[in-house]
Amino acid sequence: MVNTTHLGGTASDVIVGRISQGLMTMHQRATGPQPDEVCFAAIKAGVDRLPPGVKMFLNSGDFYSNTWGPENIEMLGRFYAKYPEYANRTFLSVKGARSPTMQHDSSMESLRRSMERIERALLPHKKMDLFQPARIDRSMTIEDIMGNLVTLLKEGHFSHIGLSECTAETLRKANAVYPITAAEIEVSLTAYEVETKKVIETARELGISVLGYAPVGRSLLAGKITKLADLPETDYRRNLERFKEDNLEHNLSISSLVPKIAAQKGVTPAQVAIAWVATLGQHVIPLPGSSAPERTLENCEAGDIELSADEIKELNTMAEAGEVKGSRMLGGKEESFLWG
């Protein structure tokens, strides 16, 4: 049996798979973009395992590429052109609202640029279901940002509104303007901050889905990275504090519980990490990335893994300890526009 859940807000009638799929790593990757046929297979793998009437939640961005261009959504346009029957079997969320200089900009001018870029790639084959500003534009009030988004929604550019990297307070204020369908925040055993818990609880109270991105800690919890040399020279993670030599050794040591539980259950460490995120609430939807069909299936199957009460307790203790070293993004909270 494949586990499913309902989305929140204005999409509460939509049923999606328990695990969603992030598409960023198809085109934002150290080894260069994946060919279309591999991307297409990776998407179809997740959709095809779902029962009738259940949609696969896909998460893209109009800047997902090594050059910050629209390659990822352009690939999606080609996918839907080739497989039109998948348009209604997927729920597509797209992030945008970045200026030409890649600043976070939720002005109407910037948002309309995103609409044009996204629609040029997707239409007439697929209309995006949900739009999210990639970060909260701190130069504007959330009420003004929401006003712009509601205007675009009423014009028919998308059907639902989401936020990304927002605080619980911002989420509550935004939802008072117009019902939010989903809030995307980083959630993992190594990213379980005080604000993470606040957003999850506020979203539960307001009937909003939480999309937990990087549930495997950018592969830190996957059991495949044992030293810095395991990362390609051009891999962006080499620039993250958590993957610096000394920090990486420490962070791997405090994560040893994950492969231990995985071995006991006969599953992968990544699946344990994803399954734990799903235990945080029926409204919390893990959002792991995938750029290959076998990885999509591994991720999705994590939604059907049942962790025991003792396993959850052990993993909760690990997450609550918060002993991970290094910030989760480049720079600190302000530089990375975290918790806007």
Characterize the biggest β-sheet.
Answer: 8 strands, parallel
H and E string: EEEHEHEHEHEHEHEHHHEHH
Strand content bin = 5-15%
Distance between the termini: 38 Å
**Helix percentage range:** 25-40%
At the fourth level of CATH, the homologous superfamily of the domain at 4-219 and 277-296 is: NADP-dependent oxidoreductase domain
Query: How many distinct helices?
Result: 11
Report the mean per-residue pLDDT as an integer.
93
Features:
eight-stranded parallel β-sheet, alpha/beta, 37% helix, TIM Barrel, 340 residues, two-stranded antiparallel ribbon
How would you describe this protein?
The protein has 340 residues and is of the alpha/beta class. It has a domain at 4-219 and 277-296: NADP-dependent oxidoreductase domain (TIM Barrel). Helix content is 37%, strand content 13%. The protein is built from 11 helices and 10 strands. It has helices spanning 36-48, 71-82, 108-122, 142-154, 168-177, 194-206, 245-254, 257-265, 269-278, 293-301, 309-321, and strands spanning 4-6, 15-17, 21-22, 56-61, 90-96, 130-133, 160-164, 182-186, 209-213, 284-287. The strands form 2 sheets. It has an 8-stranded parallel sheet. Helix 4 (142-154) links the parallel strand 6 (130-133) and strand 7. The longest helix has 15 residues, at 108-122. The radius of gyration is 19 Å and the shape is globular. The model has no long low-confidence stretch (mean pLDDT 93).
